[in-house]
Design goal:
Length: 323
């Protein structure tokens, strides 16, 4: 049986947005603005990654949705419940895995997860707790005090705690911070399994590769504002660029008018021709470039292509947003 299997009410009703954030502003006592009229919808059953530099407002947004921080203005609805007027109903739909490894060191793994379920008013369910621990590779550690666990195992315990009351939504704040590559990939598989079980997953991450690997949609946040929310594939297609590089046998003294008109530039001490074009090939002139090179008798050593990564796109969006 796969990890969890929570088909919650929102999913059962076919609700498209399980979280609705409407014009939310958060100001602190010193008038510092953490969120500025921010609006975003999160769809039921998706994995959405919140990307942004430190201080962008990602953790503040999560804290507001989870009811840990009060908003200054605006509204947030979780599963149709207003987090202000129906806090308990909204919070019961949410599991939160914070970035900090805050756990009772002398409690056992089993005791920690069981207690968390009880705090949400849920009746005991040993079979469910066993399944969660097994799926997180924690069952063999069930009687171990938390203080004896590695950092990666403690993070798994945090996830088990967050899942113990069968939430429809799981928030993961930097879920793979400080873990090794193998454990990070295990976490990626875990998150995909959660989605397959009907859980909506919202994560913040500094590992752009993480978002590129597992997210369905990307929300880029900077200075308390949403710069963009887009399907990952659409984002890569809209903003992605390919680069066609041609390494030459010897340096050129310059470019012909034909090559310049085709958009070619020179790099690497004039020993490399560079051509950039859209990922969808809508503006590609590669065939014309190769014909021009042949007609000009330019000797080629090697050719290769590179495609923009999500990190390249993210840096470009944030840079533009700061200007």
């Amino acid at each position: 049986m796969g990890l969890i299997g929570f088909k919650g009410q929102a999913g059962a009703l076919g609700m498209s947005s399980i979280i609705e954030v409407r014009n939310v502003t958060k100001k602190y006592a010193d008038e510092k603005v953490a969120l500025a009229d921010l609006s975003v919808d999160i769809n039921a059953g998706e994995i959405i990654a919140l990307l942004g530099p430190n201080g962008a407002g990602k953790t503040t947004l999560i804290s507001i949705i989870c009811g840990l921080t009060t908003l200054t203005a605006g509204n947030v609805f979780v599963g149709g419940f207003d987090i202000g007027t129906n806090y308990r109903e909204a919070r019961s739909l949410i599991g939160l895995v914070p970035q900090e490894l805050v756990l009772e060191p002398f409690e056992t793994v089993m005791g920690t997860v069981t207690l968390s379920r009880g705090l949400f008013g849920k009746s005991p369910n040993p079979k469910l707790i066993k399944r969660i621990l097994e799926d997180l590779s924690l069952w063999d550690k069930r009687t171990s005090p938390v203080k004896e666990l590695s950092g990666g195992m403690k993070r798994r315990v945090l996830i088990a705690k967050a899942l113990s009351h069968e939430p429809q939504i799981l928030f993961l704040d930097e879920p793979t911070a400080g873990v090794d590559v193998d454990l990070r990939r295990d976490m990626w598989r875990l998150i995909k399994d959660l989605k397959a079980g009907g859980v909506t997953v919202v994560l913040t991450t500094h590992y752009i590769k993480e978002a590129e690997e597992i997210a369905d949609r990307i929300a880029v946040i900077d200075k308390g504002r949403v710069l963009l929310v887009e399907d990952k594939s659409v984002l890569m297609e809209r903003f992605g660029k390919k680069q066609f590089s041609i390494d030459l046998d010897k340096p050129l003294t310059g470019l012909s008018t034909t090559l310049m008109d085709l958009g070619i530039t020179l790099e690497n001490d004039n020993k490399r021709l560079i051509y950039k074009y859209n990922v969808d090939l809508s503006d590609s002139k590669i065939s014309e470039i190769l014909l021009a090179i042949r007609s000009e008798k330019i000797q080629i050593n090697d050719v290769h292509t590179e495609q923009s990564s999500l990190e390249d796109i993210f840096i470009e969006l944030v840079t533009v947003g700061q200007t």
